[in-house]
Write a structure and sequence with these properties.
Layout lengths: L2 H7 L25 H8 L14 H14 L3 E5 L2 H10 L7 E5 L4 H13 L3 E5 L5 H6 L5 E7 L11 H10 L4 E4 L4 H4 L9 E5 L13 E5 L13 H4 L10 H4 L1 H18 L5 H11 L2 H20 L4 E5 L9 H7 L7 E6 L2 H10 L5 E2 L9 E3 L11 H6 L6 E5 L5 H14 L1
Parallel strand pairs: 2-3, 2-4, 4-5, 5-6, 10-11
Antiparallel strand pairs: 1-7, 6-7, 8-9, 9-12, 11-12
Helix pairs in contact: 1-3, 3-12, 15-17
Bound molecules: pyridoxal-5'-phosphate (PLP).
Length: 424
Amino acid sequence: MQRETMCIQAGYEPKNGESRMIPIVQSTTFKYDSSEDMGKLFDLEASGYFYTRLQNPTNDYVAAKICALEGGTAAMLTSSGQAANFYAVFNIAGCGDHVIAASTIYGGTFNLFSVTMKRMGVEFTFIDPDCSEEELAAAFKPNTKAVFGETIANPALIVLDIPKFAKAAHEHGVPLIIDNTFATPINCRPFEWGADIVTHSTTKYMDGHDAAVGGCIVDSGKFDWMAHADKFPGLTTPDDSYHGVVYAEKFGLGGAFITKCTAQLMRDFGSIQAPMNAYLLNLGLESLHVRMPRHCENAQKVAEFLEAHPMIEWVNYPGLKSNKYYDLAQKMMPNGTCGVIAFGVKGGRKAAEKFMAGLKVAMIATHVADAHTCVLHPASATHRQMNDAELIAAGVGPDLVRLSVGIENVDDIIADVDNALKNI
Ligand SMILES: *Cc1c(COP(=O)(O)O)cnc(C)c1O
């Protein structure tokens, strides 16, 4: 199947007389004929459902679709992108371990790593994604367990050189985890460039309609845990909480990571996606391959319009030839990157505020990456506590406007931006 067909059909094959659409299994629990049957599930000796905190059929159909789209071997849904990134890292890095992450990652993930997971004893080194191979190699320590980055950073729009990061990770015997939220598997499949684990905030393009918060983790099945058994005892030594099962032995390369993540982390933290949300996510996935090209086409036109406009100081969009990441984006994402653009309005904070006030089609929202065009001026919203000097140090200057280009008629979006610029 091609990706377009997978968006519609992968993950769920109805049998004779069954519902064409995935069923919403709105049930916390599942019935068995004997205690013995159920006991096999608890021992991980048989696969099946017993309690929705661990697994639910609706969620599994949708996870299987995303798994197919990414070209992975196993996948699971989580309640949010935050939960996906937390589980993906915590599944292999605990107290006393070290992880390398790109410094430009999404603010929520940065805080999760630098504050909350630090408190749990996981140490992070944040590295400039444009660093040299030598600088990257120097960041590894004997207790490093993973490398983490985003295909396209939110909101900095920095394109990660995935092959460079994968090479360094593999030379040091650890997997590369890639948050592929902005590119989606329609525009980039990180496994094809060397990544081992992929995460998503499905809240963004995958859902695509501002309807349901969610996350997903996909395993490529390529990382050989047993070859680095001493680094990953959680996968390569017996789990006492499951009668001594050794995940890497019992479930192999393709299944070990996700089985452990479900059996331990979902069991103990319980960040499940509600089956109803998984159903909504599936509706979004069914048109992902139609929406992504339109997002990119619209964003490209808006970015070119902005770049040529006398009231615009700078434009950051990886689809522009002037962009630092243009060549890398063309290599990894020849069909387009995403619909998000950042730009600076001449006249700084005041001008940006006036620009925001003049918009009608673009809605002010903290959200990004969905069908509706939305816009945020961080200096007067999410970052309003900071003065101009602090904003510049954080890489979010007072003039910065983040525009998430939707799939409306692009002429309407451009006319709206043009009017708002006149309003200044
Ligand atoms: C939004 C986002 C997240 C967090 O996802 P939620 O679904 O909001 O928890 C993580 N990574 C990236 C790149 C995001 O854009």
